[in-house]
Structure formats: C-alpha cells, structure tokens
C-alpha cells in the first residue's frame, strides 16, 4: 500500500441502481476528505445517478499524471 496516494479517493457513478439493468460505471477521483468524497462527486453528476465509494485507492502516479490538487474532483476518462 506504499503506492497509494493519501487523501485522494476513487468514486463510482452509475446511471441507475437497478440490478436488473446494470449500467457501466464511470470512475471519478476526489482529492477531498474521505467523508466528503461521495457528496463532492454527487454534486457534479446528473441527479438520480448512483454514487458510491470504491474499495480501491488511486496510486501516487495516477494523482501525479492527473495533476490533482487538494479540492479537485473530476471524472477519469480512459484513452481510447
């Protein structure tokens, strides 16, 4: 766990919480206190989305590559 970036959290967003109609998750990163991460992401996504904390944590490399600063909240977009 040495490579984990402290104070930065991964959050999943799905369009629905319906288990019969699962939708792909969008991954967000939040450089805010853990207790605020879900609500910080929820404030930026369309109403009705299912937002939940990931069990995984971002690496220091990912945080550096994204040039994250304290307070930043953004979606991680994978290159195609």
Question: Could you characterize the architecture of this molecule?
Answer:
The protein is built from two helices and four strands. By secondary structure, it is α+β, with helices and mostly antiparallel strands. It has one domain. It has a four-stranded antiparallel sheet with strand order 3-1-2-4, with helices on one face.
Question: What's the short story on this structure?
Answer:
The protein has helices spanning 34-42, 60-65, and strands at 9-14, 26-30, 50-53, 73-75. With 80 residues, the chain is an alpha+beta fold.
Distance between the termini: 28 Å
Q: Indicate the proportion of strand residues.
A: 15-25%
C-alpha Rg (nearest Å): 13 Å
Query: Largest sheet at a glance?
Result: 4 strands, antiparallel
Overall pLDDT, averaged?
A: 87
H and E string: EEHEHE
Q: Within the largest sheet, what's the order of strands?
A: 3-1-2-4
Characteristics:
80 residues, alpha+beta, 4-stranded antiparallel β-sheet, 2 helices, 4 strands
Blueprint (SSEs and pairs):
Blueprint: E1 9-14, E2 26-30, H1 34-42, E3 50-53, H2 60-65, E4 73-75
Antiparallel strand pairs: 1-2, 1-3, 2-4
């Amino acid at each position: 766990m040495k490579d984990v970036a402290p104070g930065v959290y991964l959050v999943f967003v799905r369009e629905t919480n319906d288990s019969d109609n699962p939708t792909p998750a969008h991954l967000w990163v939040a450089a805010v206190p853990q207790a605020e991460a879900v609500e910080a992401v929820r404030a930026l996504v369309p109403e009705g989305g299912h937002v939940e904390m990931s069990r995984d944590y971002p690496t220091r490399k990912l945080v550096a590559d994204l040039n994250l600063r304290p307070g930043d909240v953004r979606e991680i977009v994978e290159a195609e």
